[in-house]
Design goal:
alpha/beta; Rossmann fold; six-stranded mixed sheet; 6 helices; globular
């Protein structure tokens, strides 16, 4: 499988605020990002995207017929959504940190639940595809398709408006933003 993972541009949210499933507008211009990223993507590959606006806007600029799939949405943090991390109950944060795969924030979903829907989506993809999605989904793709160990994939960082490539079971490149330099 050859999978191009595109993270959405920076959303309009204050630093230190927990967000996942919340549908946020963008602070960065997706037109500028799309122009820079297009040269890194295969022109004929199908594009699948989270339906959240921060992904949808970029997907529509990158591909004439994007397919929107709710399984590519970010983790649902439930009642933690749009709360400052510092305001969330410390014992709850500690419980999540102790079992990040299975802990379910109140009214939300666990990373294991996110993993199940992402894996179902990946099983339906063709051999080559582009995903416009979120950091949590990208981390799971790296874990499942590139064999990144659990103690490493949780700490992976995917930059806003960048592309990463998983091919033949390996994470070949990460966080590219321009074709000429391959970096920021």
């Amino acid at each position: 499988m050859r999978l191009f993972l595109v993270r959405h541009p920076r959303p309009a949210v204050a630093p230190g605020v927990c967000y996942g499933r919340t549908d946020l507008p963008l602070t960065d211009d997706p037109t500028i990002r799309a122009a820079a990223l297009r040269a890194l993507l295969p022109a004929d590959a199908p594009l699948f995207s989270s339906p959240l606006a921060r992904c949808r806007q970029l997907a529509e600029l990158l591909h004439p017929q994007p397919v929107f799939d709710a399984r590519l949405m970010e983790l649902d943090f439930g009642t933690w959504e749009m709360q400052p991390w510092a305001a969330i109950d410390r014992p709850a944060i500690d419980a999540w940190a102790a079992d990040p795969l299975h802990y379910i924030p109140p009214g939300g979903e666990s990373v294991a639940m996110l993993r199940a829907r992402v894996m179902a989506c990946l099983a339906d993809l063709p051999d080559e595809a582009i995903l416009v999605t979120h950091a949590g989904v990208m981390k799971l793709c790296a874990a499942e398709l590139a064999g990144v160990p659990a103690d490493e994939w949780l700490a992976l960082s995917f930059e806003y408006g960048s592309i990463s490539l998983i091919e033949a079971g390996a994470l070949l490149w990460r966080n590219r933003k321009h074709a000429a330099t391959g970096t920021g």
